[in-house]
Amino acid sequence: MQTIAIVGGGFSGTVAAINLSRFCRRPLRIFIVNHGYPFGRGIAYNARHSEHLLNVVARNMSALADCPDDLVEWLAAHPKFSDVPNTKLRETFLSRSVYGDYLMDLFQKWCCTPSQSFASVECIDGEVVDLTLSGDAPVLRLADGRHLRADRILLATGNPQPASLCSDGKPFRHPRYAENPWLNWEFCLPQDKGTPIVLLGTGLTMVDAFLTLKKLDWQGPLTAVSRNGLLPLSHFKGVEYSDFPPANPEKLTLTELVSEAECHCAILQARGENSAIVVDKLRSHTQRIWRNLTIDEKREFLQRYKGKWNVLRHRIAREVHAQLSAAIDLGHLQIVRGAVVALQEKSAHSIAVVLEDPARRHTELYGGFVINCTGPREAFSASNSGLLRNILERGWIDADDLDLGIRVDTDLRVFNAQGEKSEFLFAMGTILKGTLWETTAVPELRVQAYQAAQGLLGADNLTSVPTELELIEYQI
Ligand SMILES: Cc1cc2nc3c(=O)[nH]c(=O)nc-3n(C[C@H](O)[C@H](O)[C@H](O)COP(=O)(O)OP(=O)(O)OC[C@H]3O[C@@H](n4cnc5c(N)ncnc54)[C@H](O)[C@@H]3O)c2cc1C
User: Phi/psi at 187 (nearest 5 deg)?
Assistant: First the structure.
């Protein structure tokens, strides 16, 4: 019997397993090994925070790349949503915990119901730390000493932890400092709800922390700091605009693309329309564009345009944006521009955040609690994953030229250090950022989970899925 091991049980690993179960036509054994975050839900869709909303509307969040309405149909059958008209359901920004429930139901249906599939799925709670060969067969080693033999392996390791902030060359540690914003920091908050809190970062992770503090009725002043001081923009109703992008945008150079985009932004602004739509319009072309840019163009994009791209691309639900704006207007939340250069312990109850402005002047902010909201660490070489470090050293994987992740081919097979396509190792998700750029959210991950399942099964064990099937794309 074929055995497939999946490393990582967040959205990516879970949906890949669901597709393996859906598409295998002979008995198949699947192991999903996960640690760190809840199985099935991963970092993003945990059940604890009903206040955290998806940043994509329901109609674009089906987990199945070949079933566009799967989520909306699940919602319509859910007692909580059965009275909501379909048109409204489709445009809803659901709670991320509800989305997690949807993933768990889908997993239950396809991976825990023997009559549905030839596959048997086993979830293993453990950390994979290495990959070796026994004869020809790949073997995963877990931190607790267990070994797992598999014919093929999918790396679905997900979001890297945020980078540590250092003090005197060592990672800063303090009881009032939450280094990982995705763990239960709210249980470490001071008793006094009037305590000032500093949030390091002004992006989506900061928004999550803000919403949680708001739900806790935090009264103390909140200060969010970042280099650019820019908040995520609000989603808005799609704009009818068919003049952009031009045909085959992947054939343009970066300079041509930027010039086209700027020209259309100016036209939209002159019409009083929201020019951020330009980034949405590129969404289904982004991976192809990225693959066709030269390495120098990619570097230039990262240096000159990444910040702006991120602000336009990662938008939030209108109601969340309204809450942020209200808090700023009331003076409860302050946004400060500056680079965080150091964290210093002032006392057992206070931390100084040292900021540098563009003129290189230093100022200090004081927090009775500080939360690291800087988002996933970008430098792949600085990864704190033992597994990724080990398999990089063994040459099973190869870092991409931008040090954002690893190199894979279009079929998600990993390239090894010799530049050869692996016989048994596949990868998906954020780890492909250097290869694909747009590879962190559900609309792209569901396509990868579908493709990975097909590649992992191989022609021998794949049901006859229609080959010309058009996989659904992000709809504006
Ligand atoms: C806070 C947040 C909110 C988001 N909101 C949205 C949204 O609204 N819409 C959207 O489309 N996208 C959203 N995203 C993007 C999100 O990254 C994807 O939607 C998706 O959840 C990623 O799933 P994943 O499985 O790739 O990664 P993860 O959720 O990071 O899961 C990976 C899992 O693998 C485990 N793992 C890693 N290494 C090992 C190992 N060696 N051994 C065992 N287990 C391992 C990890 O600990 C983790 O449990 C959000 C991301 C974050 C961080």
Answer: -80, -10
